[in-house]
Design goal:
binds zinc ion, alpha/beta, 7 helices, about 20% helix, 7-stranded mixed sheet
């Protein structure tokens, strides 16, 4: 499997000179088989606007798998020129609503007048919208295990994805203090969570806050995790690498350099601070953002805001 980190920010995009190295787009990760095109996209934050560059002008044909419906995970959905075109084929899957609201109706809550000019059915191409139950599913040549994780405001899934050779877990939004304080006050690890992430090659995890006095209470209040929790979870679950993800939109490049410096050279799990454009092939060194070509395809006409 090949992973592209297309958006690594949480809550709201963070444009500006202080954010260029780690990137300002919100959550989106594209998965491909070996050297093929991306076929499975996790979340549709504004980072999905980088998908056209990966597809080099081709339409997206695949599955868009959402962890939940908070703005930072869906805001890019109508603004991607690879998916909003006549020859696109997009199967959107999102956590099943406990009240039985259909996937399309759930999305239409944020995407319909007066909050947005068009509803989901107004997107060009062939689109389907489906609700996903917890458990194991086959899609796009991957086995995807969906499990509900603690967050805030609606059902949120974490995903484990494997192609049989390598595996990753994706938990961009996670409130582990909901399970209890754990030994260090930053959150507990229930058995189901351990099972979801156990021994994956790459754990992409919520690191919106830090375990310091000023941030930990806010993390709990907003439904997020501390970076330290992500690292501890990775160590406990014996994962190959922890990717700290969903950065606070106020965390500048220099701030994130400091977070990265804490873990550089520390024995144990390999920890990396997610930066937009990074390519990950499990078991190989990270490739830098430089391998991604500019988003020239993204200049095509798109739905107006
Ligand atoms: Zn989020
Ligand atoms: Zn969220």
């Amino acid at each position: 499997v090949r992973l592209h980190l297309l958006g690594v920010r949480g809550s709201t995009p963070a444009p500006g000179g202080e954010f260029v190295r780690y990137g300002g787009h919100t959550s989106c990760v594209a998965l491909a088989h070996d050297d093929g095109p991306p076929v499975l996209v996790l979340d549709a934050g504004t980072g999905i606007r980088r998908l056209p560059a990966l597809l080099r002008g081709a339409p997206f044909v695949g599955t868009l798998l959402l962890t939940h419906l908070h703005w930072d995970h869906v805001e890019g959905l109508p603004f991607c020129s690879s998916t909003d075109r006549e020859d696109a084929q997009v199967d959107v899957l999102l956590p099943a609503d406990p009240d039985g609201v259909t996937a399309e109706a759930s999305l239409a809550r944020m995407m319909s007048p007066p909050t947005f000019p068009i509803a989901p059915e107004g997107l060009r191409g062939r689109w389907t919208f489906g609700s996903l139950a917890a458990g194991a599913h086959q899609m796009e040549g991957f086995t995807v295990t969906a499990a509900e994780v603690a967050h805030k405001g609606g059902v949120t899934y974490g995903y484990r994805v494997t192609d049989g050779a390598s595996s990753l877990a994706y938990l961009p939004d996670h409130r582990p203090t909901a399970y209890g304080p754990g030994p260090d006050g930053i959150g507990a690890v229930p058995d189901e969570l351990m099972e979801l992430v156990s021994r994956v090659d790459v754990l992409i995890h919520d690191a919106q806050f830090l375990a310091c006095a000023g941030e930990l209470a806010v993390a709990d209040d907003y439904g997020h995790a501390a970076a330290e929790y992500a690292v501890d979870l990775g160590n406990a679950a014996d994962v190959g690498a922890v990717v700290l993800f969903h950065h606070n939109p106020a965390r500048t490049d220099n701030d994130l350099d400091e977070v990265a410096a804490r873990y550089r050279g520390v024995a144990g799990t390999h920890v990396t601070v997610a930066s937009e454009g990074t390519v990950i092939r499990p078991g190989r060194p990270l490739e830098s953002a430089a391998v991604i070509v500019p988003d020239t395809a993204g200049t095509a006409p798109e739905a107006a805001p």
